[in-house]
Design a protein that fits this description.
Blueprint (H helix, E strand, L loop, with lengths): L18 H9 L14 E3 L2 E3 L2 H33 L1
Antiparallel strand pairs: 1-2
């Protein structure tokens, strides 16, 4: 039988980072503003939000990221076509 009392850290020892505990704590926050949830959680696309405004803000931010990527891909495509001529 293993004595588990000796495997515990001594009092005052530095805590060990637990990624599972961090993931659980992150799930308890809004995906947009990272604030705590109220009585109602709104869900969309596998994410949880504290309000309709946060859902809309997150959608707008994602739309801007996609548009920026599309602009860069367009620039790179034009540069590649200019070299082939």
């Amino acid at each position: 039988m293993i004595d588990e009392t000796e495997s515990r850290p001594p009092p005052g020892a530095e805590a060990v980072f637990d990624p599972r505990a961090a993931a659980v704590a992150q799930r308890r926050r809004c995906a947009h503003c990272h604030g705590p949830f109220g009585l109602i959680r709104r869900r969309r696309s596998g994410r949880q939000f504290c309000s309709v405004a946060c859902m809309d803000g997150y959608d707008d931010a994602q739309r801007r990221v996609v548009q920026a990527k599309a602009r860069w891909l367009d620039i790179l495509d034009r540069a590649g076509l200019a070299r082939q001529r």
